[in-house]
Design a protein that fits this description.
619 residues, alpha/beta
Length: 619
Amino acid sequence: MSFSNGVPFVDSLKRGFLFYSFSAIIIAVQFIFYMYGNPVVELMDFEGWLFFVASCVSHASQVALIPFIAYLLIAAVRLPRIATFVHVLLVVLLCVLNFVNEQVFALYRFHINGFILNMFFGDSASEIFTFDTMLYVKEALALIALAAVVTGFWWLSKTVWGKFRRAFAWPVITFFIVCTLFAHGWHVYASYMQHQSVVKSARLIPYYFPMTAYGFMVKHGFVAPDSYRNIANSSVRSSDLQYPLTPFDKVSPDKKPNILLILIDSWNRRALTEECMPTAHAFAQKNQWFVNHVSGSNGTRSGVFSIFYGLSCYYWEAFEASRITPPLVDRLLELGYDFQAYPSAPLSDPPFARMLFPNVPNLNVSTEGETVLERDNRLADNFLRDIEARTDSSAPFFSFLFFDLPHSFQLPKDKNVKFQPAWDYADYTKLSNELDPEPFWNLYRNTCYQDDLILGRIFDALERKGLMDNTIIILTGDHSQEFNENHRNYWGHNGNFSVHQIGVPLICHFPDAAEPRQFSHRTTHYDIVPTLMSQYLGVRNDLADYSAGHLLTDSVPRAWHVVGSNLNYAFIIEGDSILEKTADGALDVYDAKLNPVTGYKLPAREFNAAMNQLNKYFK
């Protein structure tokens, strides 16, 4: 097969492949330049550079496939000159986009996404982006230079083809595959072992998601050579973070109350009723009930992170690689608290044990039991046993109880009876927008009822021991569980950021509270750490030094509440409207009922301030 100009089709494809190879190297070099001027460069060692360069080559080889595929499609219809022009043009555009993205990343610490595009083209963009004429000239010259470099490499590929009549396809393909396998394989190991040079450098490459396998590594017996405690106490710290903003100013508190934090996984606010959870409901009426409370995310990993750090899970990877432990946990241990966790699901995946509690001695990382109900009951038994063993002279305790039953939907038939009709199990194959949610909802309510019985045993024991007068109790959920409340066919969690997936109950028992009270202002998981640290643990810093939260009793509006992780996050603004940055970088805007909002123009000034707040712990 030949084109009309006599050039064989196969030869044309080989010439295109040569340019694809060169364009991949150009883009890889651009990725490498993301390291220039970034504080992560101070952490780089031989291992880190080997991984980073291999990752840049691997990711660039995949990005450069986009223009090459376009070239192949056009060449297949015998338009070789148009195919070549499109190929070169698309590579130029990719390089220009990469050049602009590098500047965006240096400014905001994230790559170009829908937020940036909406802000840049918004009505108030000029209030944020004001550039001198000379800057425009420099940018234009840089873009022209990029286009010239790409065109030069196209001529180089043409020259190489003319001299050797070879595309060197197999050596190039082998090189790209080796780089890809090495980069992803090594990241699996290095991320588990928390090698900072690897983990931190991976974040620099735009929309690059190397593999991790924490659960696989734990399941197959891989153990880091250092203990959790040694990892946390390492003197190695990343220079790309400043957390807290200023050193902690601490005084010894007059009293050291016990603190009991109880989480119910996937706790929907609608389950907190006298009928479904009589113990929790009565507890709410007797204490401080925050009825408009939201989590830091719609999933367990991010929700628990937001409780213990008072920050968005946006910081998880950065903090994990820098071995920054929760200031709340550090302060409790510093004050001599007897710290223990009582989890139903293991603390190994997500790796809460090493992320949140690396300094805690003799930490319970799992609870024995064949079923979730058995484990939920047993963790309560273990806590009550430890409470009974305490003496009046014992140190204050911090206990973290994490129930899992509402998340699991697993109940024996004789326990799945209070609310009927109820499914025997969660049959996800039946879920649809037309499904009557009542049987599924009743199964869920039956799980909540069983956990409520366990709460009754715990509260009764605390009363008998006389511990209510000197114990702070915080009862909440990591995130909620949706049952298609918005009629958008969403069931469960991790699906959207509406209040039906992030809204959870929060009930606090503060022994010094004057009287029971119900608070209607918006509160968040970010408010728990600063409330405990400043009101009870003797930390005098400005709350913003270490948290995104307020005091729980502070009714100042929580504007631009951020939820999610660094990959998929959203801002919740006035009226619970949702501005979501999806994993692919797009910006989706919804109202509180998940109705899409079209033509939304981001208020540039407010968003710029919100992003500066979100990124304030990055240098």
